[in-house]
Amino acid sequence: MDGLLENLRELWSRSASRIADPIGILTYGEVVEYLALHRPGVRGARGVLCRERAAGRWYYRLFYIDEHDAPVFDAHGRLMAAKSVLAARCDEELTELFGGADMIIIE
Q1: How far is the C-alpha of 98 from the C-alpha of 65, rounded, in Å?
Q2: 60: which of 14, 15, 41, 93 lies 20 to 30 Å off by Cα?
C-alpha cells in the first residue's frame, strides 16, 4: 500500500484542483457522505483518504481507486472525486481507522 500512497501523492501534486478547503475537524461522516455523493460508475471502486502533516495541521485528500488499486480518472483525465481538506485534526473514528498509517481505504 505504500506504493499506492506515493502514487496518489504524486498525482495530487500535479492536479489542478489541489486547493484545500480549511476546516477545524474532519469527520468520518463527512468523508463517507462525500464519497457516496461522488461515487464513480467504475466496478469495484473504493474511496481512499490520505493524510499529510503540514505546518501543524493536516492535509486530507480523497480519491477513488478501482478493483486493481489504480486511481480512477474522469473523462478529462482528472482524478475522480479528488478533494483536499486542510484541518486541525480528524475525529476519533478517523483517528482510530488511520492508526499509525497515512492512508485508509473506505469500502
Answers
A1: 18
A2: 41
Closest to 44 measured CA to CA, from 24, 70, 26, 25:
70
**Structural domain total, the chain:** 1
Grid cell for residue 89: 485534526
C-alpha cell at position 32: 463517507
Domain that holds residue 54: 2-106
d(CA 94, CA 91): 6
For residue 21, give the DSSP letter.
E
pLDDT tens across 38-61, in order? 888 888 899 999 998 888 889 898
Where in the chain does DSSP place strands (E)?
A: 21-26, 46-54, 57-65, 83-90, 103-106
Give the model's confidence band at 18: pLDDT under 50 very low, under 70 low, under 90 confident, else very high: low
Residue carrying C-alpha cell 486511481: 71
